[in-house]
């Protein structure tokens, strides 16, 4: 694509002169012959001013029609803000670019949903059945999966780096001297398929793998719960009632960790003196719990923004599949303790 410098070189004038001529600067003292030569060369080189390109892009964005498929319901978002934050990232970026979200589908997809073939692209958040997605929207090259572990090879995706997150969590606990570590995870999403056909949260699988490598894996300390504060509370109660009181426990979401901390408080178990606790998400309330919760900070809104960027690249003609992995950060607070 032609630039002002190329036109200047062809015309034998400075780039500043070319810029002022193309912008119809009447205060510029230049001959009509030079002015005509600059316009002629610009036309031959098919030069398009940046503002014209921006106008064309803005026009394209304003006419785009995209759809959003959410695994989570509104009730799910109220109890756990994880997926809601991803959705906000998508909506905020679309608003900034002037893109309209024409269709939103929530929950488990049913066959009675009307096909979405009129859309220019689709963003899928959570582990929605990709076969149902293919039925509703057959243009795979314009489907972006977010937080979906079973992403088809020919589709773009935005994923969280769960392996990095779990390694940091366990490294922190190992450094504090913990070996007897409990786990409270979610029973669904994001999921991986196990050999027995059941689904398993990535954090569950990675935690077990890392503990096995260290030779301290104890399946009796692995518990699953609903993704809610009540789920975390009931599961911590169940762990204690089973006679298990590990020196530390990782809880797969902060809302669940809130419930787990309450259960420990009711049983008179001190955190972190009797049991260290680490959560996941770094929701706003985490820093104000008693004690403040050590947790994994997840850049969920960035995941949503990245999905919009991938979709725009597809609309503009990118053909190569792209996968983005977003890293996390361990935020150390009092609930895990600084030493043992």
From TrEMBL:
Pfam families for the chain? LacI, Peripla_BP_3
Q: Which residues form the HTH lacI-type domain?
A: 2-57
Give the residue range of the signal peptide.
Answer: none
Listed A to Z, the keywords are: DNA-binding, Transcription, Transcription regulation
Q: Which domain of life is it from?
A: Bacteria
**CDD domains linked to this entry:** HTH_LacI (cd01392), PBP1_GalR (cd01544)
User: What PANTHER family does this protein map onto?
Assistant: HTH-TYPE TRANSCRIPTIONAL REGULATOR EBGR (PTHR30146:SF149), LACI-RELATED TRANSCRIPTIONAL REPRESSOR (PTHR30146)
What is the name of the protein in this document?
HTH-type transcriptional regulator MsmR
- According to its UniProt entry, this protein's organism is Paenibacillus glycanilyticus
| Gene (UniProt) | msmR_2
């Amino acid at each position: 694509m032609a630039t002002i410098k190329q036109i200047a070189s062809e015309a034998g004038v400075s780039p500043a002169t070319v810029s002022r001529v193309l912008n119809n600067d009447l205060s510029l003292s230049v001959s009509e012959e030079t002015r005509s030569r600059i316009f002629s060369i610009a036309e031959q080189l098919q030069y398009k001013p940046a503002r014209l390109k921006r106008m064309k892009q803005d026009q394209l964005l304003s006419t785009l029609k995209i759809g959003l498929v959410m695994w989570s319901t509104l009730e799910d978002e109220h109890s756990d803000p994880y997926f809601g934050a991803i959705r906000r990232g998508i909506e905020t970026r679309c608003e900034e670019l002037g893109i309209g979200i024409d269709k939103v589908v929530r929950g488990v997809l049913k066959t009675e949903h009307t096909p979405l073939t009129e859309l220019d692209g689709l963003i899928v958040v959570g582990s929605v059945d990709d076969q149902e997605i293919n039925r509703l929207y057959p243009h795979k090259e314009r489907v972006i999966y977010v937080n979906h572990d079973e992403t088809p090879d020919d589709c773009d995706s935005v994923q969280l780096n769960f392996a990095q997150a779990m390694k940091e969590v366990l490294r922190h606990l190992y450094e504090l001297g913990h070996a007897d570590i409990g786990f409270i995870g979610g029973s669904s999403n994001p999921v991986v398929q196990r050999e027995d056909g059941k689904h398993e949260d990535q954090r569950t699988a990675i935690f077990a793998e890392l503990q096995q490598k260290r030779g301290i894996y104890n399946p009796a300390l692995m518990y699953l719960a609903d993704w809610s504060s009540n789920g975390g509370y009931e599961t911590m109660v169940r762990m204690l009632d089973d006679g298990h009181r590990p020196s530390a426990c990782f809880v797969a979401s902060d809302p669940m960790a809130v419930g787990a901390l309450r259960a420990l408080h009711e049983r008179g178990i001190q955190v972190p003196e009797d049991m260290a606790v680490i959560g996941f998400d770094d929701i706003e309330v985490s820093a104000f719990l008693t004690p403040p919760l050590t947790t994994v900070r997840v850049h969920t809104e960035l995941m949503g923004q990245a999905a919009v960027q991938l979709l725009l690249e597809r609309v503009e003609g990118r053909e190569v599949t792209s996968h983005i992995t977003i890293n996390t950060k361990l935020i150390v607070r009092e609930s895990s303790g600084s030493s043992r």
